[in-house]
Amino acid sequence: MYVVEILERCADQAARTARVYRGLADRFHGDHDRVHLWRELALEEEIHTDILRRELKSFQEQEQSGAFLPDFADRLQRLDTEVRQLEARASTAYSLDEALSIAVALEQADLEDLYDDLVLQGEPAFRLLSERLEAALATKPQDTPSAGLPKRQRPR
């Protein structure tokens, strides 16, 4: 699987994840703190989607396909299966506990690791842009509710 294919599939996965978070925010609109959390998580995934699509466009404009990375195909297949299952669960989640469980599962999915690995494959400008956006996301206000979600440890 070439980098352009991986970028496209990861962008789609990030967009799907953002839609799940937006759906949870809509479903539990009466719980302000959780709605804020899900909207923040959706925004982070939407930013990742945008970054991945911009990098894909850069490869396409240069008529490049990027390196061949065979191990990504299996990882993307597993991620797709997991996200599909979580989308189905989210569509019928009516309790706050179930919604939070889905959010935790999404946050622990392999998408972040794939994203980080793709950043390492990209052009230096792509890495710099990604680092700056990640830093901006990390400096968001401290009053954002955590809802008990575990903080991910990202390799640097």
Description:
The structure is a single chain. This protein is mainly alpha-helical and 156 residues long. It has one domain (3-138). 74% of the residues lie in helices and 0% in strands. The protein contains 6 helices and no strands. The chain has helices at 3-27, 32-61, 71-91, 96-108, 111-121, 124-138. The longest helix is centred in the N-terminal third of the chain and has 30 residues, at 32-61. The protein is globular, with a radius of gyration of 16 Å. The chain starts with a helix and ends in an 18-residue tail after the last helix.
Summarize the structure in short.
By secondary structure, the chain is an all-alpha fold. 74% of the residues lie in helices and 0% in strands.
Structural class: mainly alpha
Compressed to H and E, one letter per element, the order equals HHHHHH
Annotation, overall tally of beta strands: 0
Strand % is: under 5%
Q: Helical region count? A: 6
Number of domains: 1
Helical proportion, percent range: over 70%
Could you tell me the radius of gyration in angstroms? 16 Å
Outline the low-pLDDT stretches. Answer: 142-156
Mean pLDDT across the residues is: 80
Q: Separation of termini?
A: 24 Å
Shape assignment: globular
The main β sheet shows up as:
none
